[in-house]
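Please, structure for the following, as tokens.
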Amino acid sequence: QVQLVESGGGLVQPGGSLRLSCAASGSIFSINTMGWYRQAPGKERELVATIIRGGTRKYAEFVKGRFTISRDNAKNTVYLQMNSLDPEDTAVYYCNMDLWEMVLVPRNCWGQGTQVTVSS
């Protein structure tokens, strides 16, 4: 059973920063795509950023250069550095990974989510 464990969420003032982490564990052979999504109350889940194994990154338009996604393949971990946070960034942030289990079965996995609240 593959598990994704997130950390780093919390309460931060407008203009502040947070660093989210998500580590995968279990019967993992390789991880292709790692990403972050978010969902605010009453709204649909939306993509924040993705990074593939080769390093190519994609960001949602609302990021506007404020966030950076990165990965540590040795630790099966993806990070999201968030700077210049705005109250509009308040949401539950979820990590997602496309991976292969040790038996070479493809899986798409989600973390449990971590709350990010931007407020003074």
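DSSP finds no helices and eleven strands in the chain. The mean pLDDT is 97.
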